[in-house]
Every structure is written in C-alpha cells, then in structure tokens.
Inverse folding.
C-alpha cells in the first residue's frame, strides 16, 4: 500500500500554521459564554447575580402556580375536511421549479396543506430526482414576510379592479408596449403573453441575469437552431470546459451534476472514469472537481479555445500550446476519444461559442446518443442580450410608453439596469407594471405592482427540452391577495372570464393530449400527468422511475422519432481571425471576473437566509461577497488573512469605485480578481439589504452582448480597514489527523483498488490487528435494522444541496453573521473543502529551497480540491455517549446515535469528545427571539413558522444537537411497512441529504437487509475504496467514505507524464 | 418483692405492646386498601388480555376451509380475508358497518344480495352505476339521502378481498350465533380472570381475619389493664413508687414537652412535607382527570356507548396517521343533517357551517411537544384498544383524561405489552431471534421500545 503523502489544508492559515489558528483550534469552543450578552433573553440587559436570585424566587413561585393549572389548549378541526388532507399525514405533489430559467422537476412534501420541503422528482428524465441548494431553499421564500399582501399603486395598497383599470387605461393609450421577463419556457405562458401582445401590439423581451446569449446565437449561426443544445455528460469520456461552472451555476447544474456523477462512479465492474479539464479564472466547484485545472485570465479564454481548435483541426497551435498548461494534453485526449468528448464554454462571446461548436463538430461530438444534441434543443435559456439592450436604450430615449416587468428585476440584475432605473424614475415610461411577488429594485420604481403567485401557489407548464413537457401545480392556496401572472395578462388582454388553469388545460387538450394514444380520456390523462409531473410523448405515463429506465426510454423514443440532423455551417477561418486577443496584464494590472455563487446565484434568492448562511463551497464564506484575489496579489498589497480577519481593498473600475473585503483565494488565476453577483441589494427586506457589494454595474455591454469580465482599467488599492468575514472554513478542524481524506490516482486504483487507503494496524500480543477489530466494549446487537451510509468522495461535487435539504428537514436555525463569526453555525451536515498540493517529498530541489513564503504561494497557486460531507458518524463505539453525565446521548438498537434534547443539560462534554466535530450547541434561543427574528424568520414569525417540519422538535437554548440520520423519516418508513405487514423496501427509507444529492454520492440504507444497495456497495468496496474517517481511534462509524480518485497521468515520482 | 411491686413494670410493658398493636392494625388496614386496589387493576388487565386472546382464537381457528356454493368466485383464504379486513377498516368503516346502518347500508350479506361485478363497479365508481340507470343503485341512492359514495380506486384483487372479508364476517357471525366455539374461548378468558379473582379474595380474607384477631387482642389487653388498675387503686398498702404509678394522672403538658414526642412530631412533619413536595413535583403537568367543558355538549356515552359508532368513524386518522383527528363538522353532518336537527347543541353545528368558523374543541389529552406519539402505530399496528389509554370513553358523558400520560406510564406499558406480531411480516425475523433466547413473549421493550429516539426527535 502506498501511503498518501499529500498535505491537506482547509485554509491558508492552516497551511501556514498561523499561531492564531492553532490557538483557536485547540479549543472545541471558540469563545467563553457571553454572560452579558442579552441575546439569550431576547430582551434588554443581561441578568446579574441579584437578578438571578430574584428570578429564581419568582421562577419557583411561578412554577408552582403554573403547576396548578395548565393552559387550555384547543383542538380545532377543519370545518369541511378536504378528502385528501389528513392532519399529520404527508401529501406529495409533483411540480416544477423554473425560476429565471432554472429547471428542476420536484415533488413538494405537504403537511396539513402547507409545503414544508422540496424533493427531487424521480420521474423526471432531466433532473432525475436531484435538487440543488436553491431549489431546496425555495420553499422558505413562500413564507417570506416581505411578500406583497396585495396589489399596489404608486406604493399605496390598492384593490385589484383599480389596478386593472389603471393598467388597461395606460396600455390603451400606449403605442409602444413591452413585456419584459427572464426566460419563459412555458408553452401556455407564452400563449398567454401572445394573447396580450396581439391585443396591444406588444413585444416580449427575455433576458437572463447570467446570460447564455452567445451560446444560443452561435447555434443559430451554425445550425440555424436558435437554442442551446441538450448536453449529456454521461456520454463524455473527456470533458473540457472553458469557464463553464456546469456543476454549480451554468445553465442547468442539477441535470449536469446527475450526468457528470455517473461518469465519475467507480467500482469492481467499472474501473474507468471520465477525464475533466477545466480552464477558468475563479476557482469554482466545477474546477475543484476537474482532474486537470488550469487557471487562465478571462481575456485569454478566446485564444485558448482558438488554440484548441487549431490543435484539433489543424494539428498545430503554434506558440499557444505552451501558453496554456494541459491544453495540448486535452486536445490529445479529445482526439483519442473522438465522438465521446465534450467541449463547453461559458463565454458570452459569439465567436468563441461558434469555435466551440466547430470543435465539437470536428470531434464528432454532436448527434443522437452523443454528448451534445441540437436536435433536442433545451429551452431553459432564451435571454436575448441585444433585444434587452435595445429596450433599455429605447426606454432611456423615452420611446417606450408602457412596460410589464413579468417577475423580473432588470434594474438590479441587468448590466444596463441603472439607466433603466433612471428612465423609470424620470417617468419616461408612462405605464410601468411589475408582477414581482416582493419588493425589489424594479418594482420600487413601477407605478403598478400586480403581485403574482409564488410558484408553489400557481399552475403552469414547461417545456425545458423539445417535446418534454412538465407541469407545475399549486400546493397551497394563495397566501395573499396575489394573482397568477398569466391571468393578469389575459385579463389585460381583454379576456376577463378566462382563468389560467382552464386556459392551460384547453391548450393541453388541443396540443399535447393528441401526442399520445395511451389514455383516451383527457381527464384521466391530465390526472396521470399531474401525478408524475412529466409528459414525454411516446413514454408510458406510469413507467417506473427506477434505474434510469425512464430516461433511457425517453432517449430511445426520441431517437426513433428523431428529426433530421441539422447541418453545420460556419466560416471558421473568419472566426479564428476575429478571436479577440488576450490582454497582456502587466504587474499592477488586473482583470475583474464577475461570477455567480452556488447559493445566492444571480441575487433573486438574496432574501433567503438559508442561502445567505450557506457557506460558499469554495471560500466557505457566509453572508457576504468579497473580492477574491490570488496569493501573489495579496503579497503585493501586503495583505494577510488572519483567521477570518482580512482587510478591505479599494476596487476601481473605470469611474466606479467600491471598497470591499478581500479573500485570498487559492487557485485564483494570477492577474485576475473576482467578485460575485447577487449581493448589494436594496429595497428587498431585512435579510438581504446592505449585504455585500452589487457587482452588476461592472458587467460590460459590448455590441449589445453582456461580458462578465473587465479586461482593463481595474485598479486595486489596499486600505487599512479591517474586516471580519464570517468564514467557516477552518471551523471544526481536526488537528494533526492527516488521513481524513484518502485519495489515489486512477492508475493506482486500477492496479490496486485499495490505493490511497490508510490502514493502520495496532500491535497486540497476537500480532497486528485492525483498530476496528479491537475494542473495550462488547458492541451492540442490531437484530432489526442497522442503518448506515456510504459517501462517495469521487462523485460528491460539493454542490451543497444536502446542507439545505437537511436544514429544511430538521428545523435547523439560521444564526446570522455575527454568530457564524463566533463559530456557532448550526448546520448538521457540512461540506469540508480541503486543498492539497505537493508534499515535501514530492517537491523538487528547487522548490524545497524556496523561502517558506514562496512555498506557500506555490502551494496555493492551483491546489487540488476535495469535498467531504461531514455529519454525525453514528459511531458504534461513540465517544460522545460515554461522557454524557445524564445519558442524553445513547445508542439505539438500530445503530443510531440518539440525541435526547429534553434530557440534555448542556455540559457540552459530548462535543468536546467528538473526534469528528459534528455536534452543535444551541447557544441561544433562536426561536421566538427578537434578536434573531431578522435572520431566522422561519422560527420567529407566524408566517415563517409554517415551513417548520412538525415531526421534528425546535430545540431550546442550552441543548446539544446533531444529525439524527433523519430518525423521523426512519420511523415514518417503518410504520408504513408495519401497517402493510411487510419489511421496508430498500430505498423507501432515505435521509434528506441522500434524497437531495444530485450526484447520488450519498447512499443510505439498512445493512441488515442483504438486498439493499448499500450492502451491495459495501461488499464491492470492502476490499476497495471504503474507509472510515479516523479509523485508528476505533470509533467504528456507521458512515463509510469511498476514496477520491483522480484521473491524472502521474509517473511513479508523482510527476506529470508527458507523452508525445 | 411485693405483688404490686411487679404490677407497675407490667403495665409499663403493656403500654408499648398496645401502641405496637394499634400501629400494626393501622398498617394492616392500609395494606388491605392497597391490595384491593391492585387486585382491581389486575382484573382490568385480565379483561383486556382475555378479549385479545378471544380475537386471535377466532382468527386462528374459525377460518372455514370449504367454499360455499353460491360464493364460488369469492376466495376465502386467510390471507385474502386479512387483506380485506385491513382495507375495510381503513377505508369503509367511516360509512359502513356490517350489521347496522351508519351512513351507508349495513354490508352483512352483500355478496348474496348483489352480484360480484355489480359490487365492484359500485365501489369503484358509484355515480357511474347510478347514472347508468341501474334500478337497485338508484333506489339505494335515494334511500340514503342521495349521499354520494366516494370512488375508491381499488384493484380487482383488493375489491375481491374486501368482499371476501364481508362474506367471511357475515357467515362467521351467523355461525357464531349457533356455535358455542366463541363462548368456549370466552370461558377460557373468564376462567383466567376468575383465578385472579380467587387469589385476591383469599388474600382479603386473611387480612380481614388478621385484623379481627388483632382488634380482639387489643380489646382484651386494654380490659385486663383497666381491671388490674381498678383493683390496685382500692388497695392501701402500696408503697410510694407504686402509688405514683397507679394514681398517675395523664399529663398532657408533660407529654407535649417531652423530647421524644417532639422528636417524633418533627420527624413526621418533615417526612410528610417532603413526601407531599415530591408528589407535588411529580404531578406538575399531570392532568389526570382533566375534564374541561366543551363548546358542544357532545356525549361519547351516547355515540360510542349506546349507538356503538366505531371510533374510526369520527376519528378518521386513528388507523393511518399520527393524530386520530377531531372530526370536522362535515362528519357530524353525515348524520345530523337529518337526526335531531332542532336540538340546541346540534344547532351549534349549523351555526358553525353558516358562519364558516370551525369549532374550537378544548384539547383534553395534551402531550408535550417533545414527545412523539403516533396513533397508527399503537392502534393499527399494535392493536391496542382505544380504551387502554383513553379509559371507558363509551361511558363518558364528558370526556376526561383517564391515564396519567407521563413518560413513566408510557414506559411501563412498553415494558409490559407484548408486541402484536401475528400476520405481520415486519416482525418475523425479530420474533424468531427472540424466541431462540426466551419463552417470554416479546415486549415492546425487547425491540427497542425504551430507546429515547423512538419518541423524542
């Protein structure tokens, strides 16, 4: 066995062994109890000793009084109970999440008529049961306190008839009417807009905050199909991505995560995996998962793509090959895997996208059953930058008379938004209507606000991909006096009697129902579609969603009925000539990249505290945006990060100047800095206002197309302003335990499935023994179930969907920025992100002779990254159980480490004794506490509380909590089985994290059930990749990890193999 | 040494004996009261187990194996009947009973009244059958106030199972009237109960006899001592010491001031205070016997007792959900749209419907939020009678809290109750493992029923 000599670190302070870091991490809890803080009481002033006595006296008296008579509670049944709703029973409704061009087919978990959780829909052939952090968190926005209670006119509450009258009068007078929206890919909505447009001769303009316009335009130019193609990463053995963060934010990350993860799975039957090259500026989770990652400046991207084209088509790239590390290797791999590769780029430069198409065509990657398919175009991105830019210009010129902003916020999230805002403010648009469901920058400037339903309250249909139809159905009655936006449009179009549900059904009956022959009755057909949420002509409606059968069938059916392969035509030579030259960045010059974060996205979700507190997968920062800078620049500026402490820097772009904190980001391309969009909101409520800096003004418009980087004129100056970032990266660090992550290269793995494994042996009188075979304890008997989990580090992409899924399921409070700074975040599952680079043993002489400083720079230039979901390991010999003085944490006969809140007295011994640092202490009362009301609305307002899971306790102050393996789901599943007189089926009982995982990296199950997936997996990997974290201490966890495998060519010395 | 010289100490010795006797007597009476209580409890338990064993006996023994001629197409295997029973209780008992009209008709003998396909069609979509003009169906519809029976999307096997169950029940009930088989099972149960009764009666007799004997001894001793005293007081040749004893006046003041008395008094006071305090603390939050006034004077005695309406008819969640559900007004209206319309209490229902305000019942059984209790688990899977926890609801005019509903009470039941494992594949493996080690029945405790996370999460 080859021992892994890599060095892993979570943050630079750990790499540099910063004394402050060591000090803080020696202690389990960062700070002493804040005795004088008044947060715990939710009121004024903290108690002192005398108060304590007084309170105790009063408390005793009150307790004895209270004991005399308990408060009267009421049981209020329905007046008329709906047939399908039974109190305390769960209902599931298939629906679709489709905000601003995102797509996820979902199942909404309803209790007592309220949606409490979003889960993935296994029936979907696109997202296949996966979700993302944003999708999971979207349920909280339904209960957002800042939602409009009804329509408004000029900021004053109004009645719907007044609004309709005013809007219609305005529209009648108008000559130039526009409907502005984000991507709309709902056939019925488009029909409704069409009705409206034909009535007022209006133009419908779509834009996307993070635009894919160039991609669409390039396909229009080269294939005459103005749409983005369907991507299928499962068909790609070699993936080359130029800046496309397809696992995090690019176009349809849930779908791509599912596909990508399939190519990364390994096992005894499959010892090969895809190889992934990433060329990017800011370290994204996609880059973090890549086998080969090359940091490049954004202005270099076009040249890199051109060089790749030349290497592939002309077999000669000239000097460019040397400029981009691994590019030549990528080209060779692509050529070797002709027809089984994929090149993608997130560039919004049309020439670049045309070249990417040319490369994919040259490699024969286009077509049915291949990685890119333009005959099945995807419709979830349709934004047209040029139209939108033109609209803004017209608005500024005062040529637009009336505009309806349909659930969009261009004043904030469009690059030309400021000018549009000015035009609105100046009254250049006479009739302006926003259908936003809560206040935003655009709605604040509109005369009329006609709020629409939240997607969980509304009907809709979608066509995310050609001939794949999805429905969305209401899962709750509208909470406020809002109106379905399509209904508003139809009403204003002069069809007052039409309700959108009937309108949509009529369209389905006419257009989609005849596409199938399976069901003859439309009502039955409609019910079947609502049941699964999906309709794909040719695929049986009730086809079992298991094992991708549905997905494969859909693909086959489409193959059979397939359209003609479009013909590629492009003037590539002209494109090559038109490739913009990279800007030569001189020292002191920088390029600015505007990127999107996994949690906050484009900013629409900024008001969602779950997403605000979700640590960024890479930087691990919560509640902020910041400037990511490379180590070299930090040196230049004399900036050092000391344990969350950083300094602000002054960023000047052209005539705009902002001051914001800087984060030294390993992997950031030298000569670039990055800033995330989606922050710096105004007018949107307490959660998001004044958090971070708005990056949209930095986005350039070049020939009407959005450019997400600034190549020139970026100036960065150091300031003396200190700033503390709520960064969780080094919280919960294991000191001096290097084997937490175990990894190997693919070649090592192919030779030895156990490659990279750390297998310590303990010397005993009977010879060396594995630590898990040696124990002081008798062990536990598990006669019934034995729950366990396997987490595949190789397919975990670090997308964080599980974190939010767990938060929703288990009523986990949001603690706010200050408490995160105090290291008191409450997430039960965290995704540890480890960087690693060459160890001393691997460094060559020259590198070893470098100054320590320089070594640091080298190590952080482009480190390898591993994500490791870390949650309670449910140890069979749990160290926490033995130290609890009140037996509040005990072991169950099903392998769970149980935590009993009502018994816990808060000694925190268990957390001190937990080697995995997964226990969380309730330092404060987070519910019904004015101090936390702003950040934790889900536990502080009647409206917000509707999202709580009624099966899980809301924990009180002073008790310990941690992952329960979703015991409420286990109990629910067992009960269902018992009621049906049978054993639970495999896959029926599954934790929230495993359910959410779009990469299927988490497998949960009963290892007492020999037919379960987890048993098969563990059997296959027992002598392979499966390991326990910290196996040497003998805790015998019930969570197994599978080693990370990197598909890199390394020789025996760990040096890159350069094959000619 | 004179005779009288001996009498003083004798009396002295006698006094503690009397004291001891009276204390014994008191204790005896206390113990008697206790045994009586516990024997009562045992009786109740016996009744419960007796009725349970009765059920199982019937199920095990009484499944007729032969198939009757007219019901040739209705299978009568145990499995199908069990499935049918489950479906029937889960879905149909809301409106139907076997031998009485609830909302819909009584269903005993339905397989004889109507042909099989007709029944099936009616269950799947009653409106379709009615609309087809079927005379029987139309008549049925009109007879039952045009109440629409909801459609049930059962598979053909499920429908057959339900009808099989109905047939089995119909025939079994008829058989039960003639056959003494049931009463045998019942007798066995009674026998067991009698054995328990006898044992406790024997104990009572012994205790009573003991108390009588003790009382007699006490009386005799007191008599002896007073006769002796009387005799002594008439004599004049007593020395000073004896005189003092014989003529001793009972001095209350002295007694009160005596150290030992004060000591005992303080001890008793402290002990009582501590006991009361602890009892008081333990009873905080316990609302046993809580009997609040409800907004509508609904009588369970009438509905559940006299009319024997199945609990599941109103408490629709009891077999399938965590909460048993307080019935919504539309369930009341199933009957009360015709029955007793003018009663002022029923008028409250109408008022609720008219004003569109739900009725705010006062919650009687309150578990703390930290405890998770699921009705389906206990009633459906565990086969526990409602009365086990809720007491004799069928006799309650106004519902009160029968049980303590404390954790100790829950735990105790989990320790004592055997898991209902028959016909439930879920428990097969567990039962096998359990029986390999012991002959005791498998209790809830044995399968992890005392673990914290079974109820607290």
């Amino acid at each position: 066995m080859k021992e892994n000599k890599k060095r892993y670190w979570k943050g630079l302070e750990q790499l540099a062994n910063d004394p402050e870091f060591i000090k803080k991490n020696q202690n389990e809890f960062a700070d002493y109890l804040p005795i004088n803080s008044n947060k715990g009481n939710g009121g004024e002033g903290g108690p002192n000793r005398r108060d304590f006595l007084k309170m105790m006296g009063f408390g005793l008296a009150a307790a004895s009084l209270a004991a005399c008579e308990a408060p009267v509670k009421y049981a209020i049944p329905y007046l008329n109970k709906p047939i399908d709703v039974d109190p305390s029973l769960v209902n599931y409704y298939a629906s679709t999440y489709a905000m601003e061009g995102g797509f996820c087919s979902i199942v909404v978990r309803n209790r007592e008529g309220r949606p409490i959780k979003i889960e993935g829909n296994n029936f979907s052939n696109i997202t296949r049961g996966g979700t993302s952090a944003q999708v999971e968190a979207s349920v909280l926005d339904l209960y957002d306190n800042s939602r409009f209670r009804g329509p408004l006119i000029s900021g004053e509450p109004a009645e719907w008839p007044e609004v309709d009258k005013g809007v219609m009068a305005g529209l009648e007078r108008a000559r130039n009417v526009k409907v502005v929206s984000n991507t709309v890919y709902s056939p019925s909505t488009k029909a409704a807009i069409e009705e409206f447009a034909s009535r007022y001769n209006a133009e419908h303009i779509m834009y996307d905050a993070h635009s894919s316009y160039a991609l669409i335009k390039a396909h229009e130019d080269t294939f005459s199909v103005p749409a983005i193609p369907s991507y299928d990463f499962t068909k790609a053995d070699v993936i080359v991505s130029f800046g496309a963060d397809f696992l995090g934010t690019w176009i349809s990350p849930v779908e791509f995560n599912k596909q990508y993860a399939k190519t990364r799975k390994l096992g005894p039957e499959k010892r090969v995996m895809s190889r992934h090259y990433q060329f990017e500026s800011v370290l994204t989770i996609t880059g973090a998962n890549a086998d080969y990652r090359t940091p490049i400046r954004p202005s270099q991207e076009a040249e890199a793509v051109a060089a790749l084209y030349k290497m592939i088509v002309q077999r000669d790239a000239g000097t460019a090959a040397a400029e981009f590390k691994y590019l030549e290797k990528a080209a060779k791999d692509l050529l070797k895997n002709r027809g089984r590769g994929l090149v993608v780029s997130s560039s919004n430069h049309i020439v670049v996208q045309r070249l990417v198409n040319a490369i994919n065509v040259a490699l024969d990657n286009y077509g049915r059953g291949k990685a890119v398919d333009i005959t099945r175009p995807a419709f979830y991105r349709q934004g047209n930058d040029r139209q939108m830019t033109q609209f803004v210009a017209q608005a500024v010129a005062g040529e637009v008379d009336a505009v309806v902003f349909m659930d969009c916020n261009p004043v904030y999230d469009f690059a030309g938004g400021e000018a549009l805002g000015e035009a609105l403010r100046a009254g250049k648009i006479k009739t302006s209507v926003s259908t936003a469901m809560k206040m935003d920058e655009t709605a604040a400037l509109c005369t009329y606000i006609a709020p629409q339903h939240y997607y969980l309250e509304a009907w809709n249909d979608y066509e995310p991909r050609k001939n794949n139809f999805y429905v969305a159905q209401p899962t709750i009655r509208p909470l406020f006096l809002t109106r379905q936006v399509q209904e508003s449009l139809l009403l204003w179009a002069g069809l007052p009697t039409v309700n959108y549900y009937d309108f949509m059904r009529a369209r389905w009956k006419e257009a989609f129902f005849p596409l199938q022959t399976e069901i003859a009755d439309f009502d039955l057909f409609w019910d079947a579609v609502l049941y699964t949420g999906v309709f794909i002509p040719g695929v049986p409606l009730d086809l079992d969603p298991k094992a991708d059968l549905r997905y494969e069938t859909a693909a086959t059916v489409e193959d059979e009925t397939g359209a003609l392969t479009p013909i590629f035509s492009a003037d590539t030579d002209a494109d090559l000539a038109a490739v913009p030259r990279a800007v030569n960045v001189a020292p002191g010059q920088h390029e600015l990249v505007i990127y999107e974060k996994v949690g906050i996205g484009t900013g629409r979700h900024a008001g969602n505290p779950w997403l605000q507190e979700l640590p960024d997968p890479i930087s691990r920062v919560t509640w902020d945006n910041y400037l990511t800078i490379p180590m070299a620049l930090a040196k230049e500026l004399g900036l050092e990060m000391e344990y969350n402490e950083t300094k602000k820097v002054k960023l000047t772009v052209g005539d705009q100047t902002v001051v914001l904190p800087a984060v030294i980001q390993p992997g950031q391309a030298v000569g670039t800095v990055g800033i995330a969009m989606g922050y710096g909101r105004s007018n949107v409520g307490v959660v998001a206002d004044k958090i971070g800096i708005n990056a949209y003004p930095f986005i350039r418009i070049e020939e009407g197309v959005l450019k997400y980087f600034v190549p020139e004129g970026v100036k960065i100056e150091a300031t003396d302003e200190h700033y503390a970032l709520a960064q969780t990266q080094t919280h919960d660090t294991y000191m001096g335990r290097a084997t937490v992550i175990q990894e190997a290269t693919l070649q090592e793995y192919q030779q030895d499935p156990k490659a990279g494994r750390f297998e310590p042996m303990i010397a005993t009188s009977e010879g060396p023994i594995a630590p898990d075979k040696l124990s002081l304890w008798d062990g536990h008997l598990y006669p019934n179930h034995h729950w366990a989990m396997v987490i595949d580090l190789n397919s975990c992409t670090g997308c964080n969907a599980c974190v939010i899924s767990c938060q929703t399921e288990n009523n986990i409070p949001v603690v706010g920025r200050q408490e995160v700074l105090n290291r008191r975040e409450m997430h039960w599952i965290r995704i540890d992100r480890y960087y690693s680079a060459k160890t001393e043993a691997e460094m060559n002489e020259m590198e070893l002779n470098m100054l320590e400083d320089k070594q640091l720079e080298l190590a952080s230039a482009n480190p390898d990254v591993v994500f490791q979901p870390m949650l309670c390991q449910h140890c069979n010999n749990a160290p926490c159980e033995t130290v609890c003085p009140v037996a509040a944490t005990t072991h169950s006969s099903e392998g769970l480490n149980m935590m009993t809140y009502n018994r816990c007295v808060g000694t925190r011994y268990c957390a001190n004794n937990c080697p995995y640092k997964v226990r969380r202490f309730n330092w404060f009362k987070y519910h019904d506490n004015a101090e936390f009301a702003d950040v934790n609305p889900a536990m502080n307002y009647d409206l917000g509380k509707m999202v709580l899971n009624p099966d899980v306790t809301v924990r009180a102050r002073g008790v310990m909590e941690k992952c329960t393996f979703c015991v409420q789901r286990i109990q629910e599943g067992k009960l269902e089985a018992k009621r049906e007189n049978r054993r639970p089926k495999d896959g029926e009982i599954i934790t929230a994290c495993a359910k959410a995982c779009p990469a299927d990296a988490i497998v949960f199950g009963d290892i007492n059930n020999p037919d379960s997936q987890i048993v098969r997996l563990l059997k296959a990997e027992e002598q392979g990749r499966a390991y326990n974290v910290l196996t040497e201490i003998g805790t015998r966890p019930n969570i197994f990890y599978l080693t990370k495998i990197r598909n890199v060519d390394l020789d025996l010395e760990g040096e890159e193999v350069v094959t000619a | 040494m004179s005779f009288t010289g001996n009498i003083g100490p004798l009396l002295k010795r006698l006094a503690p004996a009397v004291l001891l006797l009276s204390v014994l007597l008191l204790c005896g009476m206390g113990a008697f009261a206790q045994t009586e209580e516990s024997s009562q409890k045992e009786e109740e338990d016996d009744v419960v187990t007796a009725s349970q064993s009765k059920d199982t006996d019937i199920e095990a023994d009484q499944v007729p194996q032969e198939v009757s001629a007219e019901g040739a197409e209705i299978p009568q295997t145990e499995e199908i009947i069990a499935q049918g029973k489950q479906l029937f209780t889960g879905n149909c008992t809301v409106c139907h009973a076997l031998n009485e009209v609830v909302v819909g008709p009584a269903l005993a003998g339905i397989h004889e009244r109507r042909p099989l396909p007709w029944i099936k069609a009616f269950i799947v979509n009653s409106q379709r059958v009615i609309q087809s003009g079927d005379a029987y169906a139309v008549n049925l519809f009109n007879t039952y106030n045009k109440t629409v029976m909801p459609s049930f999307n059962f598979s053909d096997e499920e429908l057959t199972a339900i009808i099989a169950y109905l047939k089995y029940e119909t025939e079994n009930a008829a058989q039960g009237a003639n056959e003494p088989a049931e009463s045998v099972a019942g007798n066995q149960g009674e026998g067991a109960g009698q054995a328990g009764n006898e044992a406790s009666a024997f104990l009572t007799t012994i205790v009573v006899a003991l108390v009588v004997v003790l009382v007699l001894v006490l009386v005799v001793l007191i008599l002896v001592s007073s006769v002796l005293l009387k005799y002594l007081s008439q004599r004049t040749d007593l020395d000073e010491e004896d005189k003092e004893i014989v003529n001793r006046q009972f001095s209350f003041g002295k007694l009160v001031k005596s150290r030992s008395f004060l000591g005992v008094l303080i001890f008793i006071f402290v002990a009582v205070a501590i006991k009361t305090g602890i009892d008081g603390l333990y009873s905080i939050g316990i609302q046993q016997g809580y009997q609040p006034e409800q907004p509508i004077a609904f009588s369970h005695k009438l509905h559940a007792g006299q009319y024997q309406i199945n609990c599941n008819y109103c408490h629709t969640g009891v077999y399938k959900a965590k909460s048993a559900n307080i019935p919504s007004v539309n369930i009341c209206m199933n009957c009360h749209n015709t029955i007793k319309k003018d009663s002022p209490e029923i008028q409250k229902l109408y008022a609720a419907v008219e004003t569109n305000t739900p009725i705010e019942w006062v919650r009687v059984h309150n578990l703390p939020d930290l405890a998770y209790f699921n009705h389906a688990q206990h009633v459906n899977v565990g086969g526990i009678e409602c009365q086990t926890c809720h007491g004799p609801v069928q006799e309650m005019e106004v519902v009160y809290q029968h049980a303590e509903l404390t954790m100790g009470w829950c735990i105790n039941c989990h320790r004592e109750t055997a898991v209902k494992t028959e016909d439930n594949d879920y428990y097969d493996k567990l039962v096998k493992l359990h029986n390999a080690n012991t002959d005791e029945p498998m209790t809830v405790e044995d399968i992890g029923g005392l673990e914290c996370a079974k109820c607290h999460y």
Notes: Chain A has 34 helices and 43 strands. Chain A has four domains: 7-20+732-1046, 152-210+384-543, 213-378, 583-724.
